[in-house]
Amino acid sequence: MPYSEPTDLAVVACPGGESFANEVITHLRHMYKHRFTLKCDVISKRYGLDKEKAVQQMNLDNDIKTSDLCIRGSIDKYRPPVFKVNASFTYFANGEFKCELNECIRGKDVYIFQDVENHEEILMNGGKAKLKLSVNDHVMGLLVTIDAVRQAGAKNITLVVPAYPYSRQHKKKSREGLTAALLGHIYESMEVKRIITLDLHSREIVNAFAHTHCENLHASYQIIRELAKAVDLTKEDLVVVSPDTGAIDRNKFYATGLKKPLAMIYKERDYSVVTQDAKNTNIKSVKLLGDVQGKVAFLADDMLGTGGTLLKAMEFLHNNGATKVIAAISLPFFTGNAIEQFDEAYKKGLFYRIIGTNAVYHEELLKREWYISTNVSGLFANVITRLHHNQSLGDLLDNRSIIDKLIKVSTPQDSEGKVENK
Known about the structure:
Elements: E1 9-13, H1 18-46, H2 51-65, E2 87-91, E3 97-101, E4 109-113, E5 121-124, E6 129-132, H3 135-151, E7 156-160, H4 179-189, E8 194-198, E9 213-217, H5 220-230, E10 238-242, H6 248-258, E11 262-269, E12 283-289, E13 296-304, H7 308-319, E14 324-332, H8 338-347, E15 353-357, E16 371-374, H9 377-388, H10 394-397, H11 400-410
Parallel strand pairs: 1-4, 4-7, 7-8, 8-9, 10-11, 10-13, 13-14, 14-15, 15-16
Antiparallel strand pairs: 2-3, 5-6, 11-12
Helix pairs in contact: 1-2, 1-9, 5-11
């Protein structure tokens, strides 16, 4: 298990996923250096070696295991791994993509990053072209990258796609395709061993795979951490509200973790109408099951597209007497003119804050006063490290224990250890 150069862990960043990949790599570097230092301390104490000798011995052992003859870096100092693979991406005039790896990855454990919802300008063709790519462009870019990595002889291929493409097309209602499953079958046929994603829209997608493993991560700890900064959980009367029936399990998890009451918004929809933007939705009437009068209302959902559903829910809660309305979105797409619509709603005082993750790259969101970005790159780095070193993911996939610790830290206690009544 080498924690220094050379290592067989490699990261290939597609153009859309480069920003998130760079943040994850930063965490990986810190983690690897920390683990190397801890390992060195244990070895030096156990075998009575000074730390310099222990470092040299660990580097020697690492050099013996590698097939390379000359290893870059000092023999008596920590050699930080270079995780990122140098790759070139070409976008042709007819819309085709090409991925070319500029270094050897044969026998390596490769993690391919892609953010299919990155609609900012991206540099392509060696920086000569600036393009805004669609979800379909990003998916095709991901497929040609998988093929390039496979052809280059990678030992294992793992996809890191925080926003799983076409995840809303997971349930067959009439004569329609199951595109979420279709993409899963394509990945599987291309020998993808594992997929790491964030807050899948439906658990049914996981069942589409026969051999590929799907690790569905959750940003609940990071979101609650930001929520505790935005409002005083010990003083504010907070109620968790599910924005619809589909999000009831997610919000029940938050209500249980925060030890707060759970309410629900029930919407009657006209499915003959197709939602076009944030204002023109198919929602006809809204009802509240619960009480938000004089309370802080907290809503959580997996993704936000045009934002029409959330805007109506926020306005509804505001009109029903909620003092503050805070929403948490794991995947903040904000497509179309959603940002402008939320700007207007914020000026009217319909909501207080929206907490989103950096899993989707969106420059304009970060400029908004009402938007709070929480960083999940550390979570992904932890998962990648544990997978690479064949360690358990249990406490990362089920994070209720660390949420309980966070809540206890946020709650003042008296001298006998009992929670104070405010």
